[in-house]
Specification:
It comes from Phaeocystidibacter luteus. Keywords: Membrane, Transmembrane, Transmembrane helix. The chain is mostly helical. It has 6 helices and no strands.
Length: 123
């Protein structure tokens, strides 16, 4: 059963507005995805983290990389379009997923893996 926009009570200008907003959201998502793909870490960084926990999500890897690069929670939140509190909670869960002891800082660990771990060195 097909329903037209007019039957839904959406007029011509409203439909145009909805389409423009949808176009903007999709364009933003595509640009963000391209930016993330172009700044991905060395594959070995991801492999090392995945060896600690193969169930890490794409978001976990994004937060790990930005944390390893020394960005603040506020900056990570802006970069990933999320709240600072969400970044803080995500980092807490990531530390648990990586099974890091209480005395080890997630930030320091990730920076060490990115910069110093032999498997992440460029050939």
């Amino acid at each position: 059963m097909e329903t037209t926009l007019l039957e839904l009570g959406i007029g011509g200008w409203q439909a145009v507005s909805i389409l423009l907003n949808l176009f903007f959201v999709l364009s933003t998502a595509i640009l963000w995805h391209r930016k993330w793909q172009s700044s991905r870490p060395p594959v070995s960084f991801e492999l090392h983290l995945m060896s600690k926990n193969p169930h890490l999500s794409e978001r976990d890897l994004q937060i790990a990389l930005l944390t390893a690069r020394g960005l603040s929670n506020h900056t990570i939140a802006k970069e990933l379009y999320m709240a600072s509190d969400s970044v803080k909670k995500s980092k807490y869960r990531l530390k648990k997923k990586l099974d890091l002891p209480d005395g080890i800082s997630l930030d320091a660990y990730l920076n060490h893996v990115l910069v110093h771990h032999p498997s992440t060195q460029k050939m």
